[in-house]
Design goal:
This protein is mainly beta. The chain has one domain (2-85): Ubiquitin-like (UB roll) (Roll). The protein has one helix and four strands; from the N terminus they run ββαββ. It has one helix at 24-33, and strands at residues 2-7, 13-17, 46-48, 74-78. It has a four-stranded mixed beta sheet with strand order 2-1-4-3, with no helix packed on it. The chain is globular, with a radius of gyration of 15 Å.
Length: 101
């Protein structure tokens, strides 16, 4: 499966092939092998499908398909831990804003 990776800061874009089926961990490994950036900690990389919300997997073995990633998708990545905001479920009420009982 081919995916398009775009560096959020530099806008550098590459098309890379990932093995089918592919896990979240394999996605990270593919990016590491592509030499996009030589020195960084794998834990410092963040992914996003829309360039706004961080893409998080419940487990490194989570299949990309279950995260909504399909062949040809554009995946933003960044080495800045603050580049993408955590996804907020619009149906959840934050604890601090619950009405008093």
């Amino acid at each position: 499966m081919e995916l398009i990776f775009r560096n959020y800061e530099s806008k550098e874009t590459r098309t890379l092939r990932v093995p089918p089926p592919c896990s979240f961990h394999q996605l990270l490994e593919t990016l590491l092998r592509s030499n996009i950036r030589r020195r960084f900690s794998p834990s410092s990389i963040r992914f996003s499908l829309n360039g706004k919300d961080v893409l998080q997997a419940p487990s490194p073995l989570t299949p990309l398909r279950s995260l909504g990633i399909a062949p040809g998708d554009l995946i933003f990545f960044s080495f800045d831990p603050c580049a993408f905001s955590p996804f907020q479920d619009p149906n959840k009420t934050p604890e601090s804003k619950k009405p008093d009982d």
